[in-house]
Amino acid sequence: MAELGHVTLILTLMVAAYACVASLLGSMRGMASLVDSAVYGLYTTPLLLVVATISLIYAFVTRDFSVRYVAENSDLAMPKMYTWVAFYAGNAGSMLYITFILALLVVGVLYYLRKNLREISGYTATILSLMLGFFVFVLVFYANPFDKLPVTPPDGQGINPLLVHLGMFFHPPMQMAGLISVVAPFSIVMGTVMAGKSGSDIWVEHGRTWGLVSWLVLTIGLMLGSWWAYTILGWGGYWAWDPVENSALMPWLVMTAFVHTVVIQRQRGMFRTWNLVLAIMAFSLAQVGMFLNRGGPVPSVHSFAESAMGWTFLVFMAITLFGSVVILVLKSSKQDNAGKLESLLSREAAFLFNNLLLLAIAFITLWGTIFPLIADLLNNETVSVGPPFYNRMNGPLILCLLVLMAIAPMLPWRQARFGQIWSMLRAPVALALAVSCVLVIAGVRLPLAVVSFGIISLVIGSVLQEWVRGVIVRHQRGESFGKAFVRLVLSNRSRYGGYIVHIGIMLLAIGATGSSFYATQEDFSLAPGESVSMGNYTMRYVSLDSEEYGNRLEEEALFDVTRGGHHIGDMKPVRAFYPGHNVGATKAAIWSTPLEDFYIVPSRFDEDGRGVFRVHIFPLVWWMWASGPVLVLGTLVAISPRRSAHDRSEESQTV
Questions:
Q1: Residue 595: partners with Cβ closer than 8 Å, 6 or more residues away
Q2: Which of 322, 365, 530, 653 counts the highest number of beta carbons within 10 A?
Q3: Confidence of residue 333 (pLDDT cuts 50, 70, 90)
């Protein structure tokens, strides 16, 4: 099976190389049949890569340790349910997974374009086949998952213990899929430029759709990564500005800017060149993310072992960035914007400021991420950039961004008057002030916390005001309130889907604000039978159970926990030690409510059963996880197709 997998990789490389040349020549010379042959060839690549994927999974399931990658990432003690995790646990397997997802994207984008925007599909196929060819080339020559060992070992080295977690079935594949998915809007943009159509807006709706798809996958990957860090890493947090966390955040920020300003281009014919540049920037940052993930020299708890593959990605990023800029300069039409920025008090200007803030956050994050590498190269010194830098630099920008989220959607096109703005913001401002006053009376004294909750209330108030106004208007026409709300959302899915996303972002902000400003932490050394109190909680250490498995010693503590004198249940934090890796892994015990999380994680256990435990109370963190489904729902609403010409007409009038 390993040999079959290797052969399919070579065949995929040959198909991608042919498709790249044939689609380019066919597009340049107007030979539709040549372009068709290239596209039909690309349609076969997912099938070829399915065979390669099944071959590698089969090697894991049968414990074929003659395959180097299987021996390095599994062992006899690994439960077979973790075969999927082991599949992408190392560089070679994760590269195969990314390449398979890329092949699916290639087919999806080309099939979509040939139905909706055929005139750019040939050049788009050139870009996509070039990208696919690069990834398969790396697999064949740098990271072949089917390489054989000269001598078959009796057992493998085992999977990284930190990956033995439910979240690993979803977080890494979603984050890797999110990074590579940025190629979809990028290829549509570059295909438009190469076809000489960049002076028009024919690509905008399609670029926005695929931009939202990419944004959604990146969002889910980031949320799942935060949840994994919170539950398994044991440091009691969900975001530490780790380089690999940042690798997905940076393209997410630029894609957020992109999906906002393409709306301006669609409605007003503005920001044409700007949107092309944003797509190029997003893909370049996604490639930086893959460089960091593939073993770049920046240390991270998430990244793979340092390897030459990371530098291969960096070189390819430089080539694609340079090539994209050259093509944009040489091939793009003169960008005659249909509209001009008439006033700083307008929706267009607010969206532009939104873009500038998002890009500032992205490039501050990029600088903090790569600064240790620069310091090492230039001064041969090891430095680290921690959360205080990011919080101090990005925190004020994020607050400004939240304020814009409240104001921008309510501003009219072209120009607004101060009286109009005050009329629209009066109710949301009143809500924000009321919430701030209530918090101060309730004992919230930190100024930044009060300001943050006030701004969150401002955004929620502005969204609710828009919904209430729209529902009332429809109700006055005879619709019930429920029907009026549903039809309001469906009449302008782009706008109201965006509002749902904004509500999701505010839920996330509530969790981040509460847990950042008011989290508490204490360390306790307890023997079985001892009790300790923290806040309103009392925890009694009941017992310690130990069990040896083939590859680890697992110790589980049992706590009886009460809150305010009421029993809330038993909590069982776990610590496992893996001798083969000389590493420990923890699983926190978490009691979660919308008000706060009570969080116990073991640090160590002595032979007599005494343990050291770190205990946290995280206010409002539950709302972070609640935001995930809301973000997904809002994005799906915004992506969903409009049903009729009447819907499109109504949307154009109200967006």
A1: 619, 620, 622
A2: 365
A3: low
